[in-house]
Recover the amino acids of this structure.
């Protein structure tokens, strides 16, 4: 079975490279194979100590650092007796990819969708993930509560965790972050400018800033347009439009709501700092973020991790973080902030799946949540925001200040050579900014690809 999975993974990765090398913002989850299921016993609802079992945990190292993962792993071992062999790296795909192609899999992987390498997407589309629905009914190791009682509402009801819409969960929701437009509140105070509440006000601010040599907008990479575009779709047409658009409904991109989204992004491109596309990659993206800290651009789409990510970066005098939801399409309309969260999953080729499920259950324990929070990583558990302070208190209270929460993403579809959500919907923004692509060319590409996506929806 492991050899078969490895061959499937290798083929999927090869296909990904052939398909222009883009990453996807969509998640396409899948069930473990029947043969694998029969070789792995069902996880019990109670966590029990296990002797002489060592699980391999691989976690991406982000702005939160890697120390928190070691602390949580140690706490898990102390609670259950299950040992953890931990691997963390900023380029995790490069570290674990080769061994997985050879049939050696981590038992638990923490790696979100939407990265350039799209490794998680390849596992999803290749049917290489384990169904972890039973984890929700497990008791959190060391506690009396079940996992489902700890996770905040809605996080296990989205296509990011249940992409087949079949009531089964394949990816566990991790570290969540309200996403929106981040800016230097000190700059706006100094200039006497107010935060725009509508896009018309945004363009007015853009003209004022341009007169002083400041760009209205920048973005780290085009991948950050996933959260931005999802919130924009909600703002333009509400949940109904979002649902139809993310299912690639026929004719949806010809609607007034869709045109509103396209027009806003296209106009925003003309207000974007022109150096942005050249730095919009996984190596140089912090230079685009630096544009905001240096008052060379006002707004950028981002998540709450930005504070830690740029903690040591130089900044303009009087700088202080601000965050706002996307402006409303029109006065009196709704403004939305997308809730982005990472994912944790179990490869179907993992050797110790029962122990791996216990580890995932432990990630929602009070102990683990507190250890993660020390590094600024906030788990999507009930009432956790009550314990936050400083910038995080500001950021995580955005939904208390009038913004509505947007959640979900484009529906999963079977692999199509050269077609990924990010490459079709978001990567062209670089070309819109540089002027090498027109708005209509971008729209035409979306329409053509959506027809293919709709025809290949995974059901």
């Amino acid at each position: 079975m492991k050899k078969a999975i490895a061959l499937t993974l290798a083929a999927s990765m090869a296909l990904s490279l052939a398909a222009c090398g883009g990453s996807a913002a969509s998640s396409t989850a899948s069930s473990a194979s029947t043969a694998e299921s029969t070789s792995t016993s069902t996880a019990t609802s109670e966590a029990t100590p296990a002797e002489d079992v060592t699980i391999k945990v691989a976690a991406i190292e982000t702005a939160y650092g890697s120390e928190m993962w070691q602390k949580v792993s140690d706490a898990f071992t102390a609670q259950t007796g299950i040992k953890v062999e931990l691997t963390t790296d900023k380029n995790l795909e490069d570290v674990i990819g080769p061994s997985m192609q050879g049939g050696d899999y981590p038992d638990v992987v923490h790696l979100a969708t939407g990265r350039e390498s799209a490794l998680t997407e390849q596992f999803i589309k290749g049917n290489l993930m384990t169904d972890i629905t039973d984890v929700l009914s497990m008791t959190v190791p060391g506690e009396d509560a079940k996992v489902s009682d700890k996770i905040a509402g809605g996080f296990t009801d989205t296509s990011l965790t249940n992409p087949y819409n079949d009531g089964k969960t394949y990816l566990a929701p991790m570290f969540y972050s309200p996403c929106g437009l981040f800016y230097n509140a000190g700059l706006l105070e100094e200039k006497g400018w107010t935060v725009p509440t509508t896009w018309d006000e945004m363009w007015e601010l853009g003209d004022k800033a341009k007169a002083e040599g400041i760009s209205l907008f920048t973005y780290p990479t085009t991948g950050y347009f996933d959260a931005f575009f999802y919130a924009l779709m909600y703002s333009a047409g509400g949940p109904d439009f979002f649902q139809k658009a993310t299912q690639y409904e026929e004719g949806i991109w010809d609607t007034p709501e869709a045109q509103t989204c396209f027009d806003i992004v296209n106009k925003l491109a003309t207000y974007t700092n022109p150096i942005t596309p050249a730095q919009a990659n996984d190596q140089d993206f912090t230079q685009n973020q630096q544009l905001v800290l240096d008052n060379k651009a006002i707004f950028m789409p981002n998540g709450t991790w930005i504070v830690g990510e740029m903690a040591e970066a130089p900044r303009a005098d009087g700088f202080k973080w601000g965050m706002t939801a996307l402006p409303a399409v029109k006065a009196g309309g709704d403004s939305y902030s997308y809730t982005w969260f990472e994912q944790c999953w179990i490869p179907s080729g993992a050797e110790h799946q029962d122990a791996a499920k216990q580890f995932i259950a432990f990630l929602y324990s009070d102990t683990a949540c507190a250890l993660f929070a020390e590094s600024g990583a906030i788990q999507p558990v009930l009432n956790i925001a009550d314990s936050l302070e400083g910038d995080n208190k500001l950021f995580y209270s955005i939904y208390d200040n009038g913004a509505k929460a947007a959640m979900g993403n484009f529906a999963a579809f079977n692999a199509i050579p050269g077609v990924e959500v990010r490459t079709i919907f978001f990567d062209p923004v670089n070309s819109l900014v540089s002027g090498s692509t027109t708005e209509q060319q971008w729209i035409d590409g979306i329409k053509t690809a959506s027809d293919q996506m709709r025809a290949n929806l995974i059901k």
